[in-house]
UniProtKB/TrEMBL annotation:
Record-level GO cellular component terms: membrane protein complex; plasma membrane
Keyword hit for Transport: yes
Name of the featured protein: Abc transporter
Keywords: ATP-binding, Nucleotide-binding, Transport
Annotated InterPro entries: AAA+_ATPase, ABC_transporter-like_ATP-bd, ABC_transporter-like_CS, ABC_transpr_LolD-like, MacB-like_ATP-bd, P-loop_NTPase
An MF annotation (GO) of this entry: ATP hydrolysis activity
Classification via Pfam families: ABC_tran (PF00005)
Domain of life the protein comes from: Bacteria
Keyword Transport: yes
Domain ABC transporter: 21-252
Lineage: Bacteria, Bacillati, Actinomycetota, Actinomycetes, Actinomycetales
Residue numbers spanned by region Disordered: 236-272
Bias (Basic and acidic residues): 236-246
Length: 272
């Protein structure tokens, strides 16, 4: 595996400070249900942010809104200095193509295409295919030797790394990963975390939804959602990839402990 991941393209020079993403009082409402409830958040450029919360707390809904796959009922989202609600469909498509890279728990690879062809499909939607670049992307995630295998011939961990290569092919400034290690064993989880650590070191902003306390602790910052609200936050004192952490509780309400996520934010995991 090579040591470098391509640095993200920089944003426009006229944007304020170094905030890549800002949510202002965002809600997503279905009937009586507030899937996301008056959530405000700033994510500095280059931050590795973990999002935790029990099942149904609104994590995926939030990611879909940030990833321009869904729109909020109320509130505004500013990404790279642009307010998403003011953009038309083709501008939103451009943001999805050029600014964001998506990694899912379900790999969503096209089964009859090889690893390299799956990566080249992403290139095709972006601009034009380039086999050399696609191979380099696979080499970056340690899969150069498996480039011509079908997804069915790859392990779950290898398939996830193909997805990451595909997500990174356009050098996104922001990588959104929804349970990226949910289907992986510990060894493959670590490979994915190592890739994220290299991306982070190269300046990419990462937002990672996870139920796994270890994966969450690898980010620089963790936020806890409960019933769509941001109810807790902590910063990992040692920075991304380190486990020492310190809790900063905003005291906005008691976390829902159903899935055990609150214990992670109270720092009950091993503080090695
Ligand atoms: N299209 C929809 N219509 C109605 N309710 C929805 C819709 N999408 C999500 N919800 C509801 O919004 C809430 C938040 O869902 P979401 O998928 O964001 O939670 P989550 O935190 O990602 O859960 P999980 O960890 O189980 O994936 C849930 O109660 C869910 O049932």
């Amino acid at each position: 595996m090579t040591d470098t991941l391509t640095a993200p393209r920089t944003g426009s020079p006229d944007q304020g400070a170094d905030v890549l993403l800002e949510l202002q009082h965002v809600s997503k409402i279905y009937g009586d249900l507030h899937a996301v409830d008056d959530l405000s958040l700033q994510v500095p450029r280059g931050q590795w942010l973990s999002v935790v919360g029990s099942s149904g707390s609104g994590k995926t809904t939030l990611m879909n809104i940030i990833g321009c796959m869904d729109t909020p009922t109320r509130g505004s989202v500013l990404l790279d200095g642009r307010e998403l609600g003011r953009l038309n469909a083709s501008q939103l498509t451009d943001i999805r193509k050029h600014v964001i890279g998506l990694v899912f728990q379900q790999f969503h690879l096209i089964p009859h295409l090889t690893a390299i062809e799956n990566v080249m499909v992403a290139q095709y939607y972006h601009s034009m295919t380039d086999e050399k670049e696609a191979l380099a992307a696979l080499e970056n995630v340690g899969l150069g030797e498996r480039a011509h295998h079908l997804p069915s011939q790859l392990s779950g961990g290898e398939q996830q790394r193909v997805c990451i290569a595909r997500a990174l092919i356009n050098h996104p400034q922001l990588v959104l990963a929804d349970e990226p290690t949910g289907n992986l064993d510990e060894a493959n989880e670590q490979l994915v975390l190592d890739i994220f650590a290299r991306l982070h070191a190269a300046g990419t902003t990462l937002i990672v939804v996870t139920h796994d306390a270890h994966v969450a602790s690898c980010g620089q910052r963790q936020i806890l959602l409960n019933h769509g609200r941001l109810v807790g936050e902590k910063h990992n004192v040692g920075g991304a990839g380190r486990r020492e952490s310190d809790m900063l509780d905003f005291g906005q309400g008691e976390p829902d402990t159903r899935a055990g996520d609150a214990s992670a934010l109270r720092g009950e995991e091993a503080q090695s």
